[in-house]
Request: fold
Amino acid sequence: MSKTKSHRSNASARYHVVCRDCPTESVERTGVAAAQVRSEHVAETGHRVVVGALSGE
Ligand SMILES: [Zn+2]
Reply:
């Protein structure tokens, strides 16, 4: 058995930011970035924006 545990980074994780009220959408690499995009769009437009986490392969 190997002692070293292979720790997979989640560098391939993506966050899909989608506006439900207009065609705006964005894919961000971090939840923080996604939340920022979301809150900026909500603040500017009052639209409803959802963030979905996409798991990488
Ligand atoms: Zn919008």
The longest helix spans residues 31-45.
